[in-house]
Amino acid sequence: MQRKTSSSLLGLVGRGGVYGRSCPHRSLVATTGSSEEVEPPPYNPDVKDRSVIVRKKGVEVLHDPWWNKGTSFNYVERDALSLRGLLPPCEIPFSKQIERFMKEYQHGIAHVAPKDETVTPENIRKWKALESLQNRNEVLFYKILLDNFEDMAPIVYTPTVGWCCQNFHLIYRQARGLFISERDRGMMSSLVYNWPASKIHAIVVTDGSRVLGLGDLGVNGLGISIGKLDIYCAGAGFHPSRVMPVVIDVGTNNESLLNHPLYFGLRRRRLEGDEYYELIDEFMRAVLARYPNVLIQFEDFSTNHAQALLDRYREHHLVFNDDIQGTATTVLGGIYGALAVKGSQAKDITEQTIVVCGAGSAGMGVVQFLAKAMTKHGLSEEEARERFWILDEDGLITRGRPGNVPSFVKPFSRKDAGMEGQDLLSTIREAKPTILIGASTVGGLFTSEHLEAMSESCDRPLVMPLSNPTSKLECTSEQSAQWTKGKGIFAAGSPQPNCVYDGQEIASSQANNMYIFPGLALGASVGKCKIITDNMLMSASESLVNCITQEDLSKGSIYPKLSMIRDISLEIACSVIEQAVVDKVVKADSRAAEVLEEQGREGLKSFVKSRMFQPNYDPLVYLPPGIGE
Ligand SMILES: NC(=O)C1=CN([C@@H]2O[C@H](COP(=O)(O)OP(=O)(O)OC[C@H]3O[C@@H](n4cnc5c(N)ncnc54)[C@H](O)[C@@H]3O)[C@@H](O)[C@H]2O)C=CC1
Ligand SMILES: CC(=O)C(=O)O
Ligand SMILES: [Mg+2]
User: Fold this and answer.
1) Is 625 within the bounds of a domain?
2) Coil vs helix vs strand at 544
3) What is the pLDDT of residues 474-486, one digit of tens each?
4) Atom of ligand 2 nearest to the CA of 493
5) Any domain includes 38
6) Given the DSSP bridges, would you call strands 395-396 and 388-392 parallel, antiparallel or unpaired?
7) DSSP code per residue over 218-234
8) Core vs surface per residue 129-141: b (16+ CB within 10 A) or e
9) Which amino acid positions bind a divalent metal cation, per UniProt (predicted)?
10) Is the CB of 323 under 6 A from ligand 2?
11) How far apart, in whole angstroms, are the C-alpha atoms of residue 191 and residue 45?
């Protein structure tokens, strides 16, 4: 505003053009100690405000093709329209959206994005078909996914989901999931109310720091939370409107993403230290304030935070870490399966010698849990630790390892410091393992020399290359069959075909935590558990092996058929609830616990089943008798 002295007040009205620079509307403004004449800015009736009236809010805006601007909404609009959290944190200009679409228009989606040779254009075409169906009709999507689970899990989940996460910024189409970023600090408890559902049963959250074996993918990690929850809904009957995929964007150390013009995560290196934990704490408080009974699965947090976060929350909230606990529970179930294939008993786990490549959250989660199972079957802790030989990128880990060895690895270091850093082949020759586990993220790590050496000292070696996606498997099913001369029992993290050796079919199982997390989460949620105990996980492993048919065992399968996923999840859920009751970790108002007490396991099974979402159409309006039947 222009200020004038009070002496010019007399000429106030009617001077100058009404619409011109010298505006007639003047006023008096009291300033400290004196009054001043202030000339307001000129009025221009031709000026049009740039906003329009939008009566919708939140997802309704994003799902309305007329109003939606996707990633181009700026933060003023996001806050006014309750969109904060529903979009990737970085605003993408209109011109970049055009550029991204034109690339796809000209070259097709499979060719827009970098390739992973083990994810074929055919996989990508199928992924696109399913994604587009999911965006327009979830009941139909889940019906089809469930009916074709074995065929389609590799499309919505590993390996294709890995490609999808690597290229999420290029193929992103529709808002799905909650984006929380460092920019939302202090605002999360209100942001969470932008989510449309008033009830949520399960959250899968990642910070994208180690997505499968593909490393740091920043905000693109949301794809893995979405993929996991697709399996929750199809495999365990969680209602699709009652789950929430989340990514917490704390930056990325992935240079190629940071430099990519279409990357829509925060363009900063990862937050670390106290600030990191405070942010995750704020997220936990925010979601638990709105959804106090929700189960939270931590997914693909890098090893430096994964165990610490689990330890931070596991005694207080209904949480688990899938990579540590889900994987371990699955591997234990698979080992029980392999023992059954060999005609041995579960207790014979105490006689196994296990070489593990990879001392990250997955590898060490497995080691700790298998050791626990061995103590359950009679070994002392010391004896159980002796059964393991663990290697990381620097070779065998012994007490002679220089530098800081993480506290969860230290107890499993081999005593003989002279073997420090020994390579895998020498370790296999020395240890004579019965089980070889890969959780290294190094595709092709297991060679013919390794598996031949293993087969020399073991009749039926169990080979478990767990790293995902397919390109990161430590070996393939075909390689295992050839190199063990058909003796190997095989299970890999991502799907592998059965193969034939010497005229005999050799089963290839999938050792993926997808066997456990849906049922575990279902039991914990329907059972109204307060926390998840190790005993509950142990009972999940034990019930997994009970789901394998004799026919499958005779073919060498160490896991049940994936097409049985709903039955498997139901069994696991019931075992988890039973154990939770024993461990006294169910809430006082747990109906499942009451049903168990009143009607036993069969009653519990019917109760849990009745709580599972079935992908069928419900009438949306009252239908008179005879219509729509
Ligand atoms: N099949 C399943 O259900 C699951 C599989 N995984 C897979 O496990 C893998 C590892 O995950 P994290 O432990 O979180 O990763 P991470 O990156 O924390 O750990 C990898 C470990 O492998 C070690 N390593 C690297 N090169 C090696 C080599 N040449 N020989 C031996 N060790 C080597 C590293 O030193 C590190 O200790 C990932 O590929 C992931 O996809 C994880 C969870 C579940
Ligand atoms: C399967 C899984 O959770 C992983 O590879 O990280
Ligand atoms: Mg994972």
Assistant:
1) no
2) helix
3) 999 999 999 999 9
4) 1
5) yes
6) antiparallel
7) GGGGHHHHHHHHHHHHH
8) ebbeebeeebeeb
9) 299-300, 323
10) yes
11) 37
DSSP code at position 322: I
Residue where one domain finishes, among candidates 482, 500, 515: 515
The domain that holds 384 is classified in CATH as 3.40.50.720
Whether 442 and 473 have beta carbons less than 8 Å apart is answered as no
Q: Which residue among the candidates 157, 172, 276, 515 is catalytic per the annotation? A: 157
Cis peptide bond N-terminal to 159, omega within 30 = yes
214 plus 109 within the same structural domain: yes
Going by the DSSP 8-state scheme, the letter that residue 494 receives in this structure is S
Rounded Cα–Cα distance for residues 318 and 240 (Å)? 20
Q: How far are the Cα atoms of 318, 603, 604 from residue 598, in angstroms, in the given order?
A: 25, 8, 9
When pLDDT is averaged across residues 602-613 and rounded to a whole number, the result is 98
Q: Is 506 in the pocket of ligand 2 (CB under 6 A)?
A: no
CA 418 to chain centre: 40
Q: Is the dihedral of CA 421, 424, 427, 429 positive or negative?
A: negative
Ligand 1 atom 18, closest CA: 360
Considering the domain architecture, whether residues 271 and 127 belong to the same structural domain is answered as yes
The finding on whether 300 has its CB within 6 A of some atom of ligand 2 is yes
Measured from the Cβ of residue 101, the count of other Cβ atoms closer than 10 Å reads 11
Q: Detail the DSSP E strand segments found in 159-242.
A: 178-181, 202-206
507 vs 114, more confident: 507
Of the residues 142, 172, 228, 313, which is catalytic?
A: 228
Choose the residue to mutate in 157, 158, 207, 517 for probing ligand 2, maximizing ligand atoms within 8 Å of C-beta.
158
Is residue 415 helix, strand or coil? coil
Q: Is the separation of the CB atoms in 357 and 320 below 8 Å?
A: no
The predicted pLDDT at position 204 comes to 98
Residue pLDDT, tens place only, 194-216: 999 999 999 999 999 999 999 99
CA distance 623 to 476: 54
The CATH number for 260's domain is 3.40.50.10380
What percent of the chain is predicted at pLDDT more than 90?
86
Query: Mean pLDDT lowest for which of 45-59, 396-410, 416-430, 528-542?
Result: 45-59
Q: Which residues contact 212 (CB under 8 A, 6 or more apart)?
A: 158, 161, 162, 165, 224, 300, 467, 468, 469, 472
Residue reference for tokens 């050796």? 501
User: Which structural domain, as residue segments, surrounds residue 376?
Assistant: 343-515
* Any domain includes 46: yes
> Is-contact 606 579, C-beta < 8 A?
no
Quick count: other Cβ atoms within 10 Å of Cβ 3? 10
Structural domain contains residue 171? yes
- C-alpha 172/C-alpha 169 separation (Å) is 6
State the sign of the Cα–Cα–Cα–Cα dihedral 420, 425, 429, 432: positive
The secondary structure of 12-59 as a DSSP string is -SS-S-SSSSS-S--EEEEETTEEEEEEPPPP-TT---S-------TH
- Catalytic annotation on 432? no
